[in-house]
Every structure is written in C-alpha cells, then in structure tokens.
Design goal:
heterodimer; A: 404 residues; alpha/beta; Rossmann fold; 6-stranded mixed sheet; 4-stranded parallel sheet; 14 helices; 42% helix; B: 294 residues; TIM Barrel; 9-stranded parallel sheet; RibuloseP-bd_barrel (chain B); lyase (chain B)
Chain lengths: 404, 294
Amino acid sequence: MFAQQQSVLARTNAAAHSAQRVAPVSRPCRRPRAVTVLGAALTDAPQEVQKFERPDSTGRFGRFGGDEGIKLRKYVPETLIPALAELEVAYKQAMDDPDFHAELNAILKDYVGRETPLYYAERLEDGSMPEIYLKREDLNHTGAHKINNALGQALLCKRMGKTRIIAETGAGQHGVATATVCARLGLSCIVYMGAKDMERQALNVFRMRLMGAEVRPVYMGTATLKDATSEAIRDWVTNVESTHYILGSAAGPHPYPMLVRDFQSVIGRETRAQCQAKWGGKPDIVLACVGGGSNAMGIFNEFVDDEDVRLIGVEAGGEGVETEKHAATLTKGTPGVLHGSFSFLLQDADGQVIDPHSISAGLDYPGIGPEHAFLKDVGRAEYFAVTDAEALEAFQRLSQVRGP
Amino acid sequence: MQVQRAAIGRPSAFAGRRMAVRATAVTTRPSVSGRMAELKAQKKIAFIPFLCAGDPDLETTAVALQKLDALGADVIELGVPYSDPLADGPVIHSAATRALQKGATLDAVVAMVAEVSPQLKAPLVLFTYFNPILRKGVDKFCQQIKEAGASGLLVPDIPLEETGTVRAACERAGLELVLLVTPTTPKQRMADIARASQGFVYLVSVTGVTGVQERVQARVEGLIDLLHSVTDKSIAVGFGVSRPEQARQIVEWGAEGVICGSALVRALGEAETPAEGLAAMEQLAKSLRDAIPQ
C-alpha cells in the first residue's frame, strides 16, 4: 500500500517539477497538457516500422547495447541461454496468434479492470502549471501496472508448458501481481524479496501469502530489489527446466526488456485514445517515474515517434544526487552490465555495483532498463531526479486535493 | 607460513599498489592448454582448485596459492571478488563480499598475482564477472592480468554470443579464454562452445550456481560422453564438487580435469584465523589431489 503511494508521489512530484523546469513547449495560447502514470506499470511492441527501431534483431537498443562493437544483450550464465531462446520463440509465436491476444485482452478487461481512467486533476490547478492528467494504473486489480506484464508472461508460461513461476519484487507490487495471476491460472509461485523490503512492505507480503505464493526473504547485500533480482536469477539458473521467471521490469537479458515493454504498452495505447477523446489531440508532455522503468516504457512506447510529445522520466533522487544516497541511475550512472543487460548503472571505479537509496522500496535499484538508456542517449527522452523530501511533499499535496 | 610470506615479498602492501610489470612472468608462465595437453599425454587428470582472492585477505590468498601449487594443483582458478556474482551460490558470494570489505579491489588482486605468479608452476586462470572488465576496459584488463602472470580468463556471465570482444582482447594479450557448457546446453551448441573454448572445456555439473552438493548428478556421465563426442579438448568438471569420492566419480566417468571451488573457499575463508583456514584448505585440497590420478 505504502509502495503504491510512494510511486504515486514520485510521479506527482515529477509533475510538479515539470512545471518548474519545463517551459511550455509550443502553442503559447494554452497551457500544456501533461499526462502522468499513476500506479506502477510497463509496455508493448512496435507494430509497424518506427523512426526509432527498438530493439533490433539482436535484441539491442542502439548502442545499448552495441557499444564499441560489443554485442550486448544477454549477460547471463550459459545455463539460461536455451531458456531465453525458448522464451523468445514462445513470445513471437504468441504475438502472431490472435487467440493469445484475445485471451490476454479478455482477462485484462474483465479481471484486471482495464481500461484504466485518464483523470484530469483539476484541483492541482493554480494557473501556473500544465493541465495535469493522471493515468490511473493504480485502479488496476492489485493496485499497480505490474499486473499487465505479469499476466502476459503467465499466459506465455502456460504456452511453454512450465508450471513453476518465480519473480522478484521490491515494493511488493510486482510480487502481488505475479501471485495474483498465478492464483488465477493455477501456477505455483515463489517470490524473492529483500528482507528490508519485507519489513517496509509487510502488507504486500501478507497479500502474496494469502494468494498462496511463497515469499522467500533475501538477506544478502542491501536486502532490497537488486539482491532479490539476483536471487531470482540464481533460482532460475537452478530450476530453469521447470520454471519461468516473470521479471517485473523492462530490464534483464533480451528478450525481457522488449517483452515487458510490449505487455505494458497497453498503458500508452489507451492514453493516446483517451487524449484523442478528451481534447482531440495528444499530450504535450508524458511523464512517469522510473525505477527499472516498466511503467515509463509502457506509456513512452506509444509516443516515441511523436516528436511533438516530450517524454520525461523521473528518477528517485533519495537525499539528493549530489550525495551518495540516491537511485538516480540515468542522472549519475555510467554504462555497465547488471542482471543480464547493458545499460546505465550506479557503480564505482572498479565496476562494483553501488548500493542505491530511495525512501521508496522498489525505486532503489542501481540499474535501469536498457531502452531508457537508449532514449536518453539519442535525446528522445529526458530524465530528472527528485528527492525523497520533494516526493513526499508532492504526495501530500496530491492527496489533499484529490484523495489518495 | 612466515617463511612463505617472506618469500613473496611485502604482502601487506598489495592493497592499493600499482601492479608492477613483469616481463619475465609474461614469457615464462605456462599456458593452460599446454598443461592440459601434457597431462593428457601422461594419462593424468588435472586437479583444478578455485579460490576467491582476498578472503580472508590477500596475504592469505597469496600463501594459499603457493600451498595449492606445492601440493600438486595442475591449474589454479582465482576468483576476482564482485559485488553481484550471479553464477555463485552463498559460499562464494559471501567470500566475495568479505574480500571486498577487506579492500580486495581488482588492482590489488592483480598486484598480488604479479607478486606470486613467478613462484607458481600451475597456470592461473582468472575468474571474473564481465562488469569489472568492461569498467577497466576490455583490452587494458586483459593486458594487465597477462602482465601479472595469468594464463587464462573465465567470465561466467558471458555466453558464447557475447564473447567476441573479450576473446579478441585475450588473443591480443596472449590469454586463453575458457568457456562453459552446462546440462541445458544442446549438443550443437556444445560443439560450438567447445570449438571456441581455450585451455579446456569447463563442464558445469549442475543446472545451478556454484556451491557444495551432496553428490554429483548421474547425468554428468552422459554429459561428459556427449561433450567428448563433439570435441578432442580436455574436459574439466566443476560446480558442486567438494569431496574426494565425488572427484573419483568424475574421473571414472572420463573427465580430464576436476574443479573444486566452494568447499575450499569455505575451508579457507570461514575459519577462525587465516592460519586455521590455510590448514583446513590444505587438508581438503590434499585429499582431493590424492583422489585424482597423477
């Protein structure tokens, strides 16, 4: 619950910031319209040739990775390679199968509760800011965007004939979403969660267990999302023949960044249609919080080729990006490899991963989905960081004018 | 132990010291493939121990390397500690975490290797994850470890498709790049990996991460046969091998080498004192060495 609120506030705060930092782009006759995602979420694949082709046939996003001639896409132990290849094939087949889409869309509608509203937050108005619209991913079943991806992957898992599901979780939203779809589809479910996060997010631990999932605490390292992800990958290496790993963010080895983006892109597709219906146009700014980057990719993906739409990602700045306690990977990180993908990374001069900090469980991740690194690299999306304090303040403000 | 420490110079100065370039080491260190070929010709089986550098500290690692060499290790794998070792289980992960806390940076490890390697008969294979290599610069990394006296490199998180740059840099530096096959690797891919692997082919005996196992899975016998059917190169089996009877079993199944890691790392790193750790590690290593025909 708190996690959800935190992600809400990060996004909201980002919205507030965009007003200060983002000068109205065009059409000075009216205030710009900004759409931001509420709740945590991810995306869907390009259906036609786009200006920014992502990813290419080898699973690379621009130099992420194709840096210095290195083919960068699957930095994982050899044991997982056949499983990743199998997943890629299963995904492609599913995408070409109308029955798969029909099943997915029906469950998204009747079980998840899509589409989610696009809500005009009129009481945030003080005349100085853009008109802010909230894409209410928090109104999905389980309270976050995470279920869009968890559901898609669980259906893939059934097609692959695997019956055991593992997942990592930070705030618990992805864990709850995964536990939920596993209960719905009759799959066994094990969720790895940092011991520190289990304390911070006890209610979500209860929810996962209620739905029959086993929550395994991870004590190594910082006992947060990074270590939970490492432990989930170790489980997958060990049980790969029977198990599918539902990775929750647009990160990890290919094909995960593509696949997670694609399952989350329903957010952006709905948003475009809703904007069209509300004012007959597009948003001027699309803004989303970025931890690993799944909800942001979910809404950005739809608008990447619309050059008149600004894409802004907001990272967890912790106690400030000038301190050592933050999780602002794109703002302060350098290119590196973590959890199977080449992207930006918070690391020291020796290439050791630095422990990130955020008041929000789940945003304290030292890596970032490689497609965000690509969008930053080519200048298509902008990324800013806001501090814990700024985020809390914005959360309170939003709560007071909207009701959390 | 005091004598051995004296023999390797000033061990306490490893941390933070710039690596000295040792031209003699570069030219005199044996190659991994050369050593494996020699053993094969003599119908001997390679004993390949693994240690995590810097656990409990780099001075002890230096002594441990000499002890392993003296008791007959044929090749030695040395792990460079990394913060997020995806292919390692709790024993080596914990050892790496302790080593990093003690200041075992890449430069410090390389400096230690430069000091010790001239006194080792066994070729050294450095085991490290990809990110520290990338951070250092792939070519620079390979040159530095070669100059320090390493003969080979093993990177557990780069599968075959991703080896191109590292392999090219290894070739330029004169290092052999050892690749891994696993129980999930299909036959054709096994052949491709074996063809590209240098020194030997590392057969991972489990689907899983490093760590002590109760027994070696029966399917390893079939995996060794399958791998032999696609390559003439020596096969060394590792992951989960901790006891002499397991080593004997692997030898009976026809492997040319036995790799033991976590059990030695635990013996060395989880003892009360470095001296006790060295003694426990040496005892276990001897029992493994004795179980493997030499």
